[in-house]
Amino acid sequence: MLTPKVFVSYAHESQRHQGDVLAFATFLRGQGVHAVLDLWSAHDRHDWYAWAIRELTAADYVLVVASPNYRRTGDGSAPADEHRGVQSEAAVLRDLVYGDRPGWLPKVLPVLLPGHGADEIPLFLQPNTASRYEVTSYTTEGAEDLLRVIHRRPGHVAPPVGSPPDLPPHSGDPAAAAPAPGEVPAEDGAVTNTITGTVTGKVVQARDIQGGVHF
User: Fold this and answer.
1) What pTM was computed for the model?
2) DSSP 114-157
3) Least confidently predicted of 25-39, 147-161, 179-193
4) Which of 33, 44, 54, 98 could lock 28 by a disulfide, CB 3.0 to 4.6 Å apart?
5) Is 135 in contact with 114 (CB distance < 8 Å)?
6) Which of 175, 111, 102 is nearest to 138 (CA)?
7) Cβ atoms within 10 A of the Cβ of 71, count?
8) How confident is the model at residue 75 (pLDDT cuts 50, 70, 90)?
9) Long-range contacts: 34-40, Cβ < 8 Å, 24+?
């Protein structure tokens, strides 16, 4: 089984928030997720815009960590000279979702870390009408819904569809309610007899017999 890869997108709005995101990404890697975080690539000089495009488009999922500044930048209401990195990432995500909504909306997962609410999710990710993933603690149980999506391990699997129940009519002739086994009702009300076994000898089909019976 391949290890899922996720790109963690967040706003650098405080040292505490960066620490929370770092702890979250570290937790994900301990849960069998190849999490990509900018802090782990800062030892080299990068064109960060090109780096972000390359990493987020190569990921199986993009995790948008909700926060007040991410909501502002994601909605385009932040000043142009603030949080330029996350503004660029949010602009790319908006374009990807807009250009291929069926393909990209399921891949961009809004994440609520402890202490954050749905009002901090950018509007283009539909905070009220689309799925969001609350992480209550950095444990398997506290992030179960998110981990199930990333690892594609649903919590509830639909059972196979069984045979219909025997539902005879409450009145009337039960034999007239449905065709006998092997019989298929025709559009004109006639009954066609379907042979499912092996036929030996000569089969003669008669047409225009009174009653519409075919042999």
Assistant:
1) 0.76
2) TT--GGGS-GGG-TTTS--EE--SSSTTTTHHHHHHHHT--S--
3) 179-193
4) 33
5) yes
6) 111
7) 21
8) confident
9) 34/3, 34/4, 34/5, 34/6, 35/6, 35/8, 35/63, 36/5, 36/6, 36/7, 36/8, 37/8, 38/85
